[in-house]
Amino acid sequence: MVVELVRAGKPFTAVTDQWGEVTWTRQLAEAMQSLVFDMPHHPAGVYHLTNASAQPVSKYEIAVACAAAMGADQALIVPGESEAVLTVQRPRYSHLRTNKGAALPPWYEALSEYLKQQYG
């Protein structure tokens, strides 16, 4: 949805008070394949795989990064709070620990690469 709005040049609101992770499914699938085929080398347990991030990012930060990667006007993205924007409540903080398993590239690099491949 962000890509379509940015490409259309339409302003929209993105929330600043919900944080999480960004994960490119292609990189996730590659990391999962590595874990499955190299299972004897990895301890058993639960793995959380997301693109690397020093800290969780807000939906607003993700939207701004998307616009920047597309060379679009970042001013189209208006910061807002979830209570005023969303009709369905979501968790404010959904950060995953990724301290074991495969290390994926930083989220902003993955986002930029994805957008380049998908939209040129």
UniProtKB/TrEMBL annotation:
User: Could you name the domain of life of the organism this protein comes from?
Assistant: Bacteria
RmlD-like substrate binding domain residues are 2-117
Annotated protein name in UniProt: RmlD-like substrate binding domain-containing protein
Organism whose genome encodes this protein: Candidatus Magasanikbacteria bacterium RIFCSPHIGHO2_02_FULL_50_9b
